[in-house]
Amino acid sequence: MRIAEPRKGIPRNARASRRVLLPGVLVLACLSVETLQAQNNDNCFLLCAPSLKFEPTVTIGNLFRSPKVGRIEGGEVVEVSQEGRESKFESILAVDIPTQVPRLSLSVEAIWAPFEGTDRNVFSGRTAGDLGVHEFRDNPAELEFEANFHWLKGEQTRGWLGSHFDIVDQYSPSARPQDLGLYTHKLNFELDTAVSIFNWLPQRNWLRNLELEFSLDYLATGIHKAGDRFGDEVFITGASPWSLSILVIVPIAPLRP
């Protein structure tokens, strides 16, 4: 019986290794998935298995006070108006990472406001009027990197309530006239309190995993200050650092945390 020769350029041992490698990779991937699924906070090493959540959010800005903005003509402020509260809808994808440090978890959030608009494109310099439209879509993504300190855990309230204090590195569009980048890092503090509104349902009902959360935010750096000037407008008082977010937490992976 004639033995077929291997193709030129592909040694026989390389082809054999490739036949072994593919099933090996599949087996390794399956084992990794099984390991992540089986992992919990009691047997993980420092960082534990992450979870992915979707969080539709309504954020109310200028919560406790609104800034005053003046219009400049001839080098003088001729008109001063006070901005009102601002509200916007945001879509958030959050990755939560439990740790072995008591009451500490980490999280990374990608934030997008799909319905916001502006009259000027900061990248092209064109105005909405130049292109004959009402406004441009103003929805750049933001990132937040958080350290979460859980001072009230669900186990303490029979699963009904949980709360944590967060120190946040917010990476978002620049706000001050002297900023040298389109995006800047900002220091943010949050107090988040989540209510398990369907905690009364049977254990296996998926709705039990939904949470209604209230987040009180204090943006400490990178916001408009008194004296900041943009074209013919100047901030008479600084922008409000306070905002309130109301969101629904929807687990994606795992679906039943």
Descriptive overview:
- There is one protein chain.
- The protein has 2 domains: 9-38; 48-253, Porin (Beta Barrel), CATH 2.40.160.20.
- It has 1 helix and 14 strands, in the order αββββββββββββββ.
- It has 257 residues and is mainly beta.
- β8 and β9 (161-173) form a beta hairpin.
- Residues 1-41 have low confidence and may be disordered.
List its salient traits.
mainly beta; Porin; 2 domains
Low-confidence stretches: 1-41
Proportion in helices: 10-25%
Number of helices in the DSSP assignment:
1
Largest sheet: 8 strands, antiparallel, barrel
Rounded to the nearest angstrom, the distance between the terminal CA atoms is 59 Å
Q: Into which percentage range does the β-strand content fall?
A: 35-45%
CATH class designation of the largest domain: Mainly Beta
Oligomer: single chain
Q: How many domain regions?
A: 2
**Strand arrangement across the biggest beta sheet:** 1-4-5-8-9-10-11-14
Q: Which structural class best describes the helix and strand composition?
A: mainly beta
Radius of gyration: 26 Å
- The coarse silhouette is elongated
Average of pLDDT: 84
Q: N-to-C SSE series?
A: HEEEEEEEEEEEEEE
Let me know the number of strands. 14
